[in-house]
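User: Ribosome-associated translation inhibitor RaiA, Flavobacterium sediminilitoris:
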Amino acid sequence: MKVNVQAVNFNIDKKLVNFIQEKLDKLEKYCDKVVSSDVFLKLENTSDKENKTIEVKINVPGDEFMVKKTCKSFEEAVDISVESLERVLVKYKEKMRTYV
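Assistant: Predicted structure for Ribosome-associated translation inhibitor RaiA:
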């Protein structure tokens, strides 16, 4: 799957990009029709410890799904986002089966 990673307000390192790619590649076992995904990493200018926001948009034929999470670290946010997307893709796949 093609993953586009964009960072807002900071520079992203290669390790984080590879981590995101690995996690999102695992989503293909839940729905094999995933075309691409866009990941936006934002560093909020607040004094809170949870100031790292991630938005993940998954494109499937005829639809797209978006998840937004804010956590203490980008890795934690990616893990939580992937778990949410797993549930969404399983529901999507079951829904598509009923129409076929």
